[in-house]
Amino acid sequence: MPKGRELVGLPVVSREKGEEVGRVQDLLYDQQTGRLKAVVLEGGSWLRDTRVVPFNELEIRGGKTFYITSAEVISHELPAGSRRWQEIRGMPLINNDGIELGLVEDVVFELPSGQITALELSTGLVNDLMEGRQEISLNGEVNWGTDTVIIG
Length: 152
What we know:
The structure is a single chain. Strands 1, 2, 3, 4, 5, 6 and 7 form a 7-stranded mixed beta sheet that branches. Strands 11-10-9-8-13-12 form a 6-stranded mixed beta sheet. The longest helix is centred in the last third of the chain and has 7 residues, at 125-131. By secondary structure, the protein is mainly beta. The chain has 2 domains: 4-85, Roll (SH3 type barrels); 86-151, PRC-barrel domain (SH3 type barrels), CATH 2.30.30.240. Helices cover 10% and strands 44% of the residues.
């Protein structure tokens, strides 16, 4: 199953014209369902509108390129109730007992549904190097807070 960081930087190509319309800069997920809602393409700034492609409009082949039918599926508004993947990186993950399990480093999700199935955690540089980062499955309730992620 892919991780968020594996999608950032991938090209998005229009099948209609056979040209690259941008590269993935960030992922947007739904705080209620834990599903990826869209991707943000690079290049948006205060001079240019944000460019967003709904996740259900993306088709991935071979894990290296996203395809869309045409550039017309690109929106300039973030979906309601969505949150940027980069915002949760570095947040503490806490269980229902109030124990901090580590810091969220990435999300793991399944394709093509976009459902987030696990979180990759860092428990400190030394532990990450010695033991590797661990993945915590999201089987129960998840509260995507503003400062912490709480799992039940």
